[in-house]
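Now for one record.
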Amino acid sequence: MPQLSSRITMLNEGGSDGWEVFYRARALVAAGEPVTELTIGEHDIGTDPAILQAIHDAARGGHTGYAMVPGVSALREAVASRITRRTGVPTTPDNVLITPGGQAALFAAHMAVLTPGDAALYIDPYYATYPGTIRAASGRAVPVATRAADAFLPRGEAIQAAARDTNAKSLLVNTPNNPTGMVYPQETLKEIAQACTDNDLWLISDEVYDTQVWQGAHVSPRSLPGMVDRTLIVGSMSKSHAMTGSRAGWLVGPTEAIDRLIDLATATTYGVPGYIQDGALFALEQGAGLEQQIAEPFRRRRDLALSVIEGQNTVKAIPAQGAMYLMLDIRATGLSGRDFAEALLDDHRIAVMPGESFGKSAAGHVRVALTVADDRLAEALHTLCSFAETKARAHA
């Protein structure tokens, strides 16, 4: 067949996509083996039946044809109101593009700000799709390393240096953070904003976990001085409303950028199904109570998980301040995160994500998704810690 483009063949630079342990675990489950899956950020509850009913009613009511490409007006208004209320930054429907989930918004944002070959910065550790998304937009994906000793918070000087050295055009950040669980404090956000203004960077802010904050407070960097006209916010119904499969998200930014992004949506997704948008609108109209209800199990499990980790000395936890994950330092075992995760799956049928799936900075760590019932989570973590202690003794 004719040659495929380098854009598509090099999305993962010809290497791993980081999901091997997840694929192995799913294959074992498909073969009928019991596996405790602590890999991906998938709620262990389904979408609320009332939301499903709203989607059903909208579809049966006839909202199954082409929807407006920028999004249904009422949903754009609801998202704008939500952003205004949560960030204090005046936002109108003209600042909002509805997208097929947060991932589509990430891709669209980078398409909007990168000319082919431009350098695009992102913080390491990172959500596994970030570098591939940048490459798909024909950008050069440039990681900015962080340190476990800093709880994986980025340093302003590192961003500044990377921006200068590469002549970067954009920076992608994520708070509350996947995979680390950190909520960026005000000082870190100020350093990010300063680096963006000093180097004329676009900031792409992935805020899909903004309802899952256990310590501190979520601050959108778009709300900082000088940032509203250089920031694109990625949002989604997936985590806040347990609607991962519905593919309902948004991109918020300056009106000129959104106008151009509507052109992109017309040429790519051609919008989001109207009945899905109606379901998303219904979900947002339920207010903060529903969001808190969906977030609460992860707050509880985070506390449970930390209590298990505190009962031993081999495995150490990065302080989990938000999101549905816990990043664990297993370097005392002498194993890489990948080897530890593979062995844990082999020996105990417990699946966790290797830190290396999220970048070089997270080597020697594993990420645990807090997505199973409390008793199964506690049992799995006790087993993980005992397994780590055994490996650490053998390594000593």
